[in-house]
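A reminder before we start the practical. When you read a complex entry, don't treat the lines as separate problems. The point of joint prediction is that each chain is placed relative to the others, so the output describes one connected object in space. Small molecules and nucleic acid strands, if listed, are placed in the same frame. In the example below there are four entries. Take a minute to note the order of the lines before looking further.
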Amino acid sequence: MKNKKRTTIYDIAEKLNIAASSVSRALNNSNHVNDATKKLILKTAAELNYKRNILASNLRKGKSKTIGIVVPFINQNFFSNVIAGIEEASYQKGYNLIICQSNELQSKEIKCINTLINQHVDCIVISVSVDGSDYSHLQNVIDNGIELIQFDRVADELETLKVINDNEQASLEAVSHMIEQGYKRIALLEGPQNLSIFRQRKTGYLNALKKYNLPIIDELIIENAWTKELGANATRRLLNLPEPPDAIFASTSDFSALGVLEVASAMGIKVPSELGICGYSNEAFTEITSPSITTIDQFSVYMGKTVANLYFQEMENKEEMDVIPKIISIKPKLIVRSSTLKNSNLKK
Amino acid sequence: MKNKKRTTIYDIAEKLNIAASSVSRALNNSNHVNDATKKLILKTAAELNYKRNILASNLRKGKSKTIGIVVPFINQNFFSNVIAGIEEASYQKGYNLIICQSNELQSKEIKCINTLINQHVDCIVISVSVDGSDYSHLQNVIDNGIELIQFDRVADELETLKVINDNEQASLEAVSHMIEQGYKRIALLEGPQNLSIFRQRKTGYLNALKKYNLPIIDELIIENAWTKELGANATRRLLNLPEPPDAIFASTSDFSALGVLEVASAMGIKVPSELGICGYSNEAFTEITSPSITTIDQFSVYMGKTVANLYFQEMENKEEMDVIPKIISIKPKLIVRSSTLKNSNLKK
DNA sequence: TTGTATGCGTTATCAC
DNA sequence: GTGATAACGCATACAA
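Here is the predicted structure of the whole assembly.
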């Protein structure tokens, strides 16, 4: 029972004995068309089950009304929430999304970018993968006349639109909170320092120590501990030190914080009394671990909306001039949970 | 530094003083073109940074090479894994994905479907939302000449391609396992019975009781407990019964199983010794709760690949004849974890 | 093997 | 306000 052929504006025009261009105008709600005929056209369009061929429309208009998204993993809450935010804002504007996963590999990321360029998307939104520091594929996006917007994990050196968090401030608050809870030897699990977000988080950590006159202890700062496994390994090393830390700030992600928690549990170390733990991103699971994990909410859905709206706004304002690099910073929020509540009766 | 105009096949043709059609042929790797000129064309195409305009190509070919996906939530592991599977299989074939979320609302689902029809996608893959039992919007997909494939949550009455799990068998195994662990009063949290997958899971549960000569106790079968909140509510009711259950099979999802676990923990009831819990879907978090939750793995990534390949295969075989409804059933696997290990030294 | 001509379904630019 | 027509970029039937 399939209609092989879909109805086109010509079918409508033929049936009504008018020109296709009039049909097109009516369908686009132009005001250069008689109200009565417009009504009639809309009516018969509905009767004939007409659906505009977006392919043809976009070809003619020279844009695809599509936004490409590249994230490391689609199934991490932070990213899926950002995507949900972008989707919501784009939906109303009639834009579609093509979503790609880089799997944290720059090689895959380059493939994704090429696919999206081939698709002639109007805009590419990306949170870069951790490996690699050559961004010529992103420059390529710009050279192909495609708007590029970076969020969260951004390549500083590229002058593009950016939506980021105030990572430094958030880290400062998180570590300050831990210090105020009575933790004195706070370790830092840091992410790859080629990415500015991880540098900023480290700076926040250092600033907090300074603020409270605590010493910076090099052996408590662990490089590249940004996955669950690396976080677990780091924790094993830390907890076996002669003077182990009494808290760990997994500045890279909640996943590494989970690694910390699992190792601590396995070693019989009590959280939060013997070890405080703080993660980053407010992944859904941080609420259901035992104990629940203190973390930092990045307002991911809002972040996504901001990205999309930034693009739409930029499109409206842009005449012939080049894009002015613009950075929007969102202030994240510390979510205090059981894993850092050493000195409090707020414990769940 | 933007190239306003992208290079087209005409640009290449002009530069090489040949016809655009030859360029097109070369770019499509046709063998009706001289090898030498083909080489030359490919070379200059690369030099000029040529990217085929997929819009035009697809318009010409009458298909969009795009698959639309509608799932309740993109950020549930089961669905994001299925999507990842579809993506992997589609990527190689040069197909793109447009992903929509129904948020479990049929109203939103209808909107998604309409968007996808408007986009002229070649195929729509859907796992239907729980509310509503009118599937005219899906019939509409078929009537528009778009291939429809259902997976997991399928509308039985629609004769489409389907990829499902053997839910009945999986439930039978899960409940059998619980009985063998010594649980005697096993409650069932069931999903909306308008969906066949939930009916099948119930049947599996009933069959297991029958197999072990256990009585069917009506008050232990709770309708519509398919979210975390509903699961929690149901658990509160169940555990306050004069004769409470000693195990709960949350047949609908791991989320409702999580609700069960949280209520049990809050009430001070020990899992698995006093209460066994089994979920469904093998969401990532089931591994990190305390205790970890026994569940059923649906091989979600494989399921996605199967869906995509089913489509590609169907496309190849189809001449002018209509689609023959085909159902592929995947056997899921019971993942035994701590939450049901009452009688065992396998406890983690 | 290569070139010419046409159409995919729209929208934009003219005339009228 | 309406209609004819060109053009978006590509792929293909046909001719050469």
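Discuss with your neighbour: The CA atoms of residues 24 and 30 of chain A lie 9 Å apart. What might explain this?
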